[in-house]
Amino acid sequence: MTVAAAEGPAIRIKRFLSEYPVVPLILLLAALVVALEVIRPGIVNERWIANTIKFAIPLAMLASCQTLTMLTGGIDLSVGTIATISSFVMATQVPLAGTASAVVIALVPAFLLGLVNGFGVGICRVHPLIMTLGTGLIGIGCLQVYQRFVIATGSEVPDFLAWLGTGRIWILPHSLLLFVPFAVAVVFMLRRTGFGRLLYALGDNENASRLSGVRGWQVFLALYALSGLIAGITGLLYLGLIKAPSLSLVEPRLLPAVAAAVIGGTSIFGGRGTYSGTIVGALILTVLTTMLTVMQIPEGTRRLLFGVIILAVTAIYLRLTEES
Amino acid sequence: MSDERIPLLEASNVTKIFGAVRALTSASLELFSGEIVALLGANGAGKSTLVNVLTGAIRPDSGHVRIRGREFKAASPTDARQSGLIPVYQESSMIPDLSVADNLRLTNTEPAPFRYWLGELGIGQLGLDEEAGGLPLATLRILDLARALASEPEVLLLDEMTAALPTDLVRKVLDVIRSQKARDCGIIFISHRFVEVAAVCDRASVLRDGRTVGNLAIEPGVEDRIVDMMLGGSIDAAAARKAKSADDRAPGLPRLSAKGLSAGTNLADVSFELHRGEVLGVVALEGQGQDELFEVLSGFEKPSGGFIEVEGNKVSFEHPADAIEAGLAYVPGDRAAALLMQRSVRENIALPFSAQVSAWGAIPVKREGERVAEAIERLQIDTRAQGEVRRLSGGNQQKVTIGRWIATGTKTLLLFDPTRGIDIRTKRQIYPLMRKFAKQGASVLYYSSELEEIPLVCDRVIVIFSGRIVDTFNAGDADESTLMRAAHGLALSSAEAA
User: Fold this and answer.
1) Under an 8 A CB cutoff, do B320 and A200 touch?
2) Residue B241 — very low, low, confident or very high, per pLDDT cuts 50/70/90?
3) Which domains are present in chain A?
4) In principle, which of A54, A193, B280, B412 could form an S-S bond with A173, CB 3.0–4.6 Å?
5) A205 touches chain B (CB under 8 A)
6) Quick one: CA dihedral A290, A294, A297, A299, positive or negative?
């Protein structure tokens, strides 16, 4: 950084931001919380913080699927469906198979759909957008068929999921027990494993990776299968959080998950992004949602504002961190 | 040459500068009606730039282009077409998803004369509703020529259009071109093949380093003078400095042998051996099959004939990973194709380490750091610019692409024009590095478009022309003019003369 000393402060700030892109995001998050407190004094308390974290966690997990796939220049639009399937299968299998088996049964379709995505993207070279959109629709269709078979069995949300999804100690929701190790694992994977390196490499230059002996299909297969599995686990967490299984439980969370990854600095063109950014992105979106709810604006305006804010934040953020 | 007539096309003192590169310093060309002029020059002499100026694709910085004495300021290729200058390139200009007839309609070409010329060129039976994309490359080139002829051009510009055409078609094309002289059409003919130039051209205009250095009438024996002009008589003592003699080649099985390799129409029956401790040069003009050779050896393409042996074992590559496993690592000519521009030097060098599924787990950070540091040191990569590789200079980027394989411990490097477009200092570092690499028991296949570096790096050199190996030299005997003659397919005649 000896070079930077000779440069003007504006360039130094820019360089700092491009080296630590999470910093402006954290500042934005803090600003939003302050703004919320100004709009509605007293709202930022223990319970509110715990709730915000509680809702941000499954969103951040769902967004991890986007970050991981986007790093390779892909996307996973089937995670909403996959999470819905795992939550619905879980709730309906608890009365039939018991909690422990239900977890396994619920995660199998999630993993399989992920594998199908990986097969399509990696081996058949279908564009990830189309492939995951397709498997998402197929998954929803299968779920509706499945529902007819279990219509008589009823559903049940196991206690441990409800505890994990909704419980809290002070400002710390129980779901952190799942999320902290998960986040550490994802960050470690991206920074310090060969697999993580290859995600960045494929997104940066697939041809160069091939030249270096990387067989892209192996990475894509593993990546989308992993993404499916994460989505499945997230579905279970949503079941514990919302406690009302339905055929569209997680579907509405899909696009916010994509938005969280993008706001968090993941480039949809691949090769750029961090999971820590995505986590902050998920927190920002959650706070933003509360803010717009608290302001008691009509639903239409709220959505409109939500969209505008996402676009604005992303644009400004890119300006700040990208180099000319 | 300099008669009183007004030339059909005249370019005088054309200059063009791209950034720091002077592509054309003073290029001139005169073309009279009924004349065929060859435009010749070594790689990088400025031929393409001059062609682009003439066709209006780029504007010259200074100088004039006149058609029939009138100043011509082409702002676009369409303007040039309207003034009667029609180019035909090595690449097809047909839109592949449209039928031939639709392609004709796009350029307002009459089908009747087009059909006539197709007949003259020997493919009169072709259906016009066939999709252009489904036709063989040679046919497409003929279609381009027929389309150009059908519009009755005043000036026809043929840029390497005979490259990779089968011999019988080349003969037909040359016949048709010759017949155009009677029509008062002027033709600029660009070809690497002296035989063709000698067969049809009246004059040759020679470019060197962006300057027109000569204007010769085509007559028997003119080839050698042209070669000297293209090189500028700069055959200095560089060749005398010979790195090592070829005798101390290690005995035993060759590291790599190619046996009758073919690929499509561009590479035919190429066989050679690359030994342990050897740097084998490859010399070829552009598009003579060297690209295909490297793609086949590196596992990017499968050969259509022949096979490869590594240490005496027959191998077959489905993927570059197979070639790497066999110890063959490819460094392509285009650095951007080999680098992760947004990642660090370290990640770029370490990329092959993680390629295998068994290496997907935690990275042994310390060991990786040591291997990368060693490669950086051996190659003297300037890493002061920390962070992304795109911030490095071209020379340092090239070192990263090579360093990756040195760090991996590759036994055989396939280098495709590694010094193209990099600074002289880096070049001078790369030569001894390759020598040292070979001395330590590795093997290097080294294609270069710069002939003067062949004697500095290589032990032996093979020359490829029209997809075949036409000559093999000990690098010590391979001065520039010998190589240049061989690369133009003139080896036999000059050997007889000598």
Assistant:
1) no
2) very low
3) 22-321 (1.10.3470)
4) A54
5) yes
6) positive
